[in-house]
Amino acid sequence: MSDFSKRAPIALTDPTLRKNFRRAMDGLMAKRAAQFPDPEAWRTLRARGAAVRANALAKLPELLQRLEARCRDNGITVHWAETTAEANAIVLGILKAAGATKVIKGKSMVTEEMELNHHLIANGVTPMESDLGEYIIQLAGEAPSHIVMPCIHKNKVEIAHLFDERIEGCGYTEDVDALTAAARKALRGEFAAADAGISGVNFAVAETGTLVLIENEGNGRLSTTLPPLHIAVTGIEKVVENLDDVAPLLALLPRSATGQPITTYVNMISGPRKPDEKDGPTAVHLVLLDNGRSRVYDDAELRDTLRCIRCGACMNHCPVYTRVGGHSYKFVYPGPIGKILTPQIEGLDCAGDQPHASTLCNACVEVCPVEIPIADLLVRLRREAVRPSQSAAVKGGGSRGSLAETLGWAGWKLVYATPWLHRLVTKVMVRVGNLMPASAPLLKQWTGVRTKPRYQGKTLHELARDKGFDNE
Ligand code: SF4
Question: Which of the residues 66, 292, 398, 469 has an alpha carbon 20 to 30 A from that of 442?
Fold first, then answer.
């Protein structure tokens, strides 16, 4: 169980965490807004992004086959994994076959989903994260708290202490440039020593068999070119039809994610090193992971979830995420996208509380660059959690249903559909409601975090009649 309702209140009482998130999210929101100053241009670009992703999903089976064929033409070995366990076994098998024991990793949320690092370590392979944020949380033994900025929950003082403890010869400094230089120095040797590089994929182009990877630190390029073996791991939904489709997504992703017009590096990987080339890996593998995505795909409404390009803008604007941070969600994908994706991947029996961790304010929907109707999907999942639909698209549907709740809503419906009963119940409630203690079992969930409202002693109809309105 995700226990969001237990973790969130703890996070809310952590002033450092609240401050770190508030400062970071305010900055990201301002930077993103500055990148889209013209509402009309934003709407047009966003509609293009949404259309590209919708088109890719509409043709997903065909595009995946085309991607596999083009990648093979290019010399990339393609593997299919239905589960994370299969994907882990495939990656480990490739590494073992190559005799690799040291791996350098670029940033990849799918490998977080697979818990690949644990699997590698348990099988004698040492993974080293090379993205600065991922490197920091690896040193700290933590999980990412954001899909784009994994260590956004930490401030420079916390990182200074961590580096002082964990990086030999670094010493204590709060100078950001010095901290970055210390990480760079520690990582340089790792790139050179690694037997293999593992990366994610932002977009996989079916037409050309190209793997597009964007990043700011150059670590992605080093991880995918310096070691003799490169393994790219991605979810099956990351495919796009052709190179033209990449352009609007590139115009949307960095601007939505970090408020940059474009990332420092845009890598387009189209195969292993050719005989006349001086660098690059001699073998490239692509692992395509399903892990429940096909099931999501089968439902016409829930399928929109798979449009996501993992920009994180929905998190940066979410009034819940920005206050409780990513670790409160427990799962790899936090915030609004996590609240719709995680229950579909993990099942509502295990993550059924996630869709409820939302005010349905629609802030995420307004900034999503590919127009995912997150609020509608949250409502759909809430419904599935208590009353599963025929499609059985979501594992664990109905697991949050209870007889008490069903009877409660049936009673509510009867009262509101029967005028005389509604009059009677409201008359009684406004007179005796104040006698109910805030700690009464029926009210506790509401009053535990809110002040109990005071009843006026008269119904609205009675108050209106007192003012001279005859409303019966
Ligand atoms: S749901 Fe939309 S806003 Fe959120 S990460 Fe995905 S693409 Fe970005």
Answer: 398
